[in-house]
Amino acid sequence: MQRSISSTKNVYSNLLHYQKPPTAAMITRQQPPCDVFINHRGIDTKKNVAGLLYNHLTRLRLRPFLDSKNMKPGDKLFNKIDTAISGCKVGVAVFSPRYCQSYFCLHELARIMEAKKKVIPVFCDVKPSELMIKDNWRCPKHELDRFQSALEEAKYTVGITFDSSDGDWPGFLMTATEAILENLIEVEEEEQHQKLI
Predict the structure, then answer these.
(1) How far is Cα 97 from Cα 101, in angstroms, rounded to an integer?
(2) Which of 1, 71, 109, 190 is the most exposed place for a label (fewest CB within 10 A)?
(3) Per UniProt, what is one Pfam family of this protein (predicted)?
């Protein structure tokens, strides 16, 4: 991740100083897959829980994916997100009081569950029992069923509860990071085991 940030800075520096168009090599360079996909409702948690977690994981030299940090204008929304989900090792689903009002959140959650990724639910200012889907989008029944199934699976997965009014942000980041690292190690051990079989 550090290398791609430096490369990006060099690209911008070249563009500003020399005003040369970027070369095809600069444009087609692929980012490595992410380690952790952070699923969240942006309006609720992007500037606090999800954003802080992304920054913290980045400082630890992990490769988290957060849409506002990893996507740029012109990216195809579902393609980029689906690729990140397919390539990630662990998903973190940050549930907030209005999470279920977002079609995109539920789509991402369903993709994470269908890809059989390890998922760490973070219940931020909401209890699992309060999470319910209302069809505000007039989705086909099969899609609502996908969303409901994914949500139920997440609600019955051991997660982290966080009350933002408590304000113990360092405690939350430590607990979440430990859970993420434990799950990453477990996934990598399973991958190594599968290679030996």
Answers:
(1) 9
(2) 190
(3) TIR
pLDDT in tens, 10-50: 434 443 344 444 444 444 445 567 999 999 998 888 889 99
- Count of helices and strands (H, E) across the chain: 9, 5
What is the Cα–Cα distance from 166 to 69, expressed in whole angstroms?
27
- The distance of Cα 109 from the centroid of its chain, to the nearest Å, equals 10
Three-state DSSP state, 40: strand
Give the predicted TM-score (pTM) of the model.
Answer: 0.79
Our answer to whether residue 153 is catalytic in this structure is: no
Written as six digits, the tokens of 127 are 């209890």
From the number of C-beta atoms within 10 Å of its C-beta (0-12, 13-18, 19+), residue 57 rates as: buried
